[in-house]
Amino acid sequence: MNSAATTKIRPTGAIATMGRTGFPHVVSETGGVIDVRTGAAEAGFNPLDLLYASLSACLAMSARIAASRLGMLHRLTSVTVRVTGSKAPDEPSRLARFDIEFEIAGDFDKATRDEIARLAEGEICTVSNTIKGQPEFTVTVAGADRCHDAGA
To answer: Which domain of life is it from (predicted)?
Structure first.
């Protein structure tokens, strides 16, 4: 039997909705919900936190996959990945750098920990590979309200 025919594909994507005031309310294609916060003292995720969260989660899962590929999953106790970054000082608004710290617990020497991190970040993680690439953006715009032209 063809394994591609039996593999379930997880729907991906998100929809953010917000009004004239307030914050974005985000719903994933699978029904996950998160409310975005932007105030410096407010607990919660802002858009950059969500980017860091996506990268850290992907790298952690990818490190586990890397340990498995190396035949060493049984030695892995845990993986923690901390991601932060720095914004670029000029326009357009963007991140100039990601700072990634792996903590790989288990029965590994330094060379093996380094190889797990290298495989996770450099080959396996879809998020890091996407960020390092230059993905194409396709943008469409729709209006929900009728707008009247002043000259019409």
So the answer is: Bacteria
Amino acid identity, position 32: G
- Axis-axis angle for helices 47-69, 110-119 (nearest 10): 120
DSSP helix, strand, coil percent of the chain (3-state; round to 5): 35, 25, 40
**What structural domains does the chain harbor?**
46-132 (3.30.300.20)
Please, what is the Cα angle at 116 between 94 and 63, to 5 degrees?
65
Residues 6+ apart with CB under 8 A from 146: none
Selection from 119, 116, 80 nearest residue 100 by Cα: 80
Taking the CA atoms of residue 51, residue 53, residue 59 and residue 65 in that order, the dihedral angle to the nearest 10 degrees is -120
* Residue 119 region by backbone torsions, left for phi larger than 0, else alpha for psi between -120 and 50, else beta: alpha
**What is the per-residue pLDDT across 52-96, written as a single tens digit (0 to 9) for each?**
999 999 999 999 999 999 999 999 999 999 999 999 999 999 999
- Cα gap 27→13, rounded to integer Å: 9
In sequence order, the β-bridge partners of residue 107 are: none
